[in-house]
């Protein structure tokens, strides 16, 4: 009784350990030749094609909401001239990587988990191993790299779309002046803000792809198992992303002093 | 020329549930063996353990001096190149057409030019009767074709050991008969070691040189075909003759009451042993033994009518 209880209580730690071991395997597979360039390009194209449009559509209201919220708040303080700056900081440091990550996990990650899960239950992965080919090197590494690459570029796109969205709303709806919005960009924001945003996007892409691949490759129990794997991979990725975002933001705010502070 | 597989004291369990324990057998080089067992006795698990997809709890599997159960990942990937495996549903890569599927191992493991690859792939496709279907995707063809395509892919690297996971499940009797003939012809041609996992007794009675029976978490018996087909051992006898009377029940084993109720019942006589399936060119395979040899050597009288026809004691349709 007590052993089954403790083994059940410790099960999540075991899963976390397995996930970490899997990530290490992926890291080792990264350096094994031959690199699967074809698979990498196909996957990058595939992930980009399922994420670009939804991401752009999410980015516009994301930028607008921040502009409205921050704009309203800042107006009460009487510091309208900093609206542009605040909106850039919020979009580039937080909204862009998070928005990117949600779509990479929701659209790209779920597709990866479903694909690998289906291959797992059709015994394709077993067949591959029996043919002497390591599925981690052959399938997972290209997917992880593709996810990171696409996340990196999507992050740039969300930044641009988000900031332009903020601009439109600030200028048209909140009677801000275009000049003040643009001029305040550099008042509080600085270049490292952009680097941390891009770094976050890379880390989020990595987490999303590793979790999705792990869950997909460990799917079991027929078609339902694949559905469960997809579902779990999206939920776990979201949780991990927000934790990772918190940690990265905290380290960044400690290490890089805010401008004018 | 085929490679011998030595299995010693192999035990596998999932969690607390023992699948089978203390399995010891030697699959002789170049021969055809069938591993039988009621549904759910871990036949497929046995097959997956043999190729190192699952780790046994204890015991060893020795192939060419390497122990599959304890060797490193790198050695495992090396030794797997000796294997060809036909999975239950063929396990074709869904995103590639049949040609690319069959060519896949060649492209990954050899430096052959595309034209050499083409020659080999076409030869194997011809062997399994799939010429003309190279451009089809696995989703577009029937289960039987997928199995044959899986077989072509398993054979493409000229394996020393070929494992079949239920080659006859989901196939009609005619296709099963064709596939069995193909297996025998292949063995005559490439002399590899064949291990077939199945619960089709017609296959088990006519195709192999040796039969093994997994039952109730252990290996009930393993030996030459004639030994098992003439055996009076209750489990072997019940299973190989598809009878209800005997120790195997609907769910695993029967309980004491059911067995007691059967105690007085007379067992039906053993059916005659059929002739082994010959290769289609008529020349016996290298590992094939003359009909009735084992029975004569061991002083066993085969059931009346044995070795007279190739379908004695079989269900109709074969």
Automatic annotation (TrEMBL), chain A:
Task: Supply the InterPro entries for this chain.
Answer: Permease_MalE
One Pfam family matching this protein: MlaE
Q: Transmembrane helix: present as a keyword of the record?
A: yes
Spell out where the chain crosses the membrane. Answer: 12-31, 43-68, 88-114, 144-169, 194-214, 234-255
Q: What is this protein called?
A: ABC transporter permease
- What PANTHER family does the entry give? ABC TRANSPORTER PERMEASE PROTEIN-RELATED, PROTEIN TRIGALACTOSYLDIACYLGLYCEROL 1, CHLOROPLASTIC
- Any idea which UniProt keywords this protein has? Membrane, Transmembrane, Transmembrane helix
UniProtKB/TrEMBL annotation, chain B:
Top-level taxon of origin: Bacteria
For the keyword Nucleotide-binding, the answer is yes
Start and end residues of each stretch annotated as Disordered: 262-318
Q: Where is the ABC transporter domain?
A: 5-241
Q: What does the UniProt keyword field contain?
A: ATP-binding, Nucleotide-binding, Transport
- The chain's coiled-coil residues are none
Classification via CDD domains: ABC_Org_Solvent_Resistant (cd03261)
Q: What GO terms are given for molecular function? A: ATP binding
InterPro entries, A to Z: AAA+_ATPase, ABC_transporter-like_ATP-bd, ABC_transporter-like_CS, P-loop_NTPase
Q: What is this protein called?
A: ABC transporter ATP-binding protein
- Species this protein is from: Nocardioides pini
Question: Lineage from the top down?
Answer: Bacteria, Bacillati, Actinomycetota, Actinomycetes, Propionibacteriales
